[in-house]
Design goal:
Elements (H helix, E strand, L loop, with lengths): L1 H21 L3 E7 L6 H16 L4 E6 L8 H9 L4 E3 L24 H8 L2 H8 L6 E11 L1 E4 L14 E4 L3 H9 L3 E4 L5 H6 L5 E4 L1 H6 L8 E3 L5 E9 H5 L3 H24 L1 H10 L3 E3 L5 H19 L2 H8 L2
Parallel strand pairs: 1-2, 1-3, 6-7, 6-8, 9-11
Antiparallel strand pairs: 3-10, 4-10, 5-8, 5-9
Length: 326
């Protein structure tokens, strides 16, 4: 009996250990740039839902919003070295990692959102994403930030001349910086999480972002004017640490790609559904919204010089393919 009791204790202990192992979960750290009210967080929740369901609970996704694990390029570096598993941030922050991505940021490159989607969701988008492999990243899917508009606290912007001398927060992307220099502004790159304070303290006069992001980041509280210029489209690549992706079996890799694509769809749909509501929120805050702007003078002065700058660095193949998809 004594030996049986001893055996029983050992059996229970072993069962407990292996029972725990059978329910072990792999934690996936997912970092993004936006507040929890932003469409990117809606997409993040969809990614979490799909991956956890598809894996039968093998994976548990922990979401870190609003640059909690790093600002802009630092988030990308974190994903490269593996301290972050997956991340989403704006395409302009990839300049130090995959500068060819800057093709997507050329002002007035995309005719409309459908044109942008055909590019980033098609073979050319995959071609651009494959360039991440050499930098220790696996491109899973293109999410979006959207078409950008200008806000400021100095004066209404209706023509490029109206931007002269205005200190404007931009992304660090050379395409954006060059365009605003051409238009006469003083472009000042900084992480998105620092922009509200910079606007409030007049460190910068204005910024440029899509309508929904302007509203969700509450920039209307510290700005007087908004010009609906839609001067550039911004994609947001979702990337994963390449070594961790390669360590997965094909079925697991397919789960991550499926979750990433469904997250992108959810984010885009939420972004589109909030456009009118966000514009109304900005107006209610007392911001003067300037619509129906003739954007041709903006395009005429900046498009060709910025395009030429890109071609001189990376050639014209990618841009020719984008043009062909119009």
């Amino acid at each position: 009996m004594k030996n049986f009791n001893k055996f029983l204790k050992v059996f229970i202990a072993i069962t407990a250990v292996f029972g725990n192992l059978s329910f072990a979960q792999t934690i996936i750290k997912f970092a993004h740039y936006g507040p929890i009210s932003d469409p990117v967080h809606v997409g993040a929740l969809k990614f979490k839902e799909v991956l956890e369901k598809e894996s039968g609970g093998t994976y548990k996704v922990e979401i870190f919003p609003q640059e909690q694990l790093g600002k802009g390029a630092d988030m990308i570096i974190g994903t490269q070295v593996g301290s972050i598993d997956v991340s989403v941030t704006g395409n302009p922050f990839y300049g130090g990692v995959s500068p060819e991505q800057a093709a997507l940021d050329i002002p007035f490159l995309f005719r409309n959102v459908d044109h942008a989607y055909r590019v980033i969701d098609g073979p050319l988008g995959r071609e651009l994403m494959d360039k991440f492999d050499a930098r220790g990243l696996k491109g899973l899917a293109y999410w979006e930030i959207g078409f950008r508009n200008i806000t400021n606290s100095v004066r209404p912007i209706r023509t490029p001349a109206d931007l002269k001398g205005i200190k404007l927060r931009t992304t660090p992307n050379p395409m954006h910086i060059e365009a605003f220099k051409i238009w006469g502004a003083n472009p000042t790159p900084m992480p998105i999480s620092e922009v509200y304070l910079a606007l409030n303290t007049k460190t910068v006069d204005g910024q440029e972002n899509p309508t929904v992001h302007i509203s969700k980041l509450k920039f209307q509280e510290v700005q007087k004017y908004m010009s609906v210029t839609r001067h550039a489209f911004t994609a947001a690549p979702m990337v994963m640490n390449l070594a961790k992706f390669k360590a997965l079996n094909p079925q697991q890799q397919a789960m991550f790609i499926k979750a990433a694509k469904e997250g992108a769809i959810a984010e885009r749909q939420n972004n589109a559904s909030l456009e009118a509501e966000s514009l109304a929120t900005i107006r209610r805050a007392g911001v003067e919204v300037i619509e129906n702007i003739n954007t041709e003078p903006f395009r005429a002065t900046a498009y060709e010089p910025v395009r030429k700058m890109y071609i001189e660095k990376f050639g014209g193949d990618i841009l020719s393919k984008i043009d062909a998809m119009k």
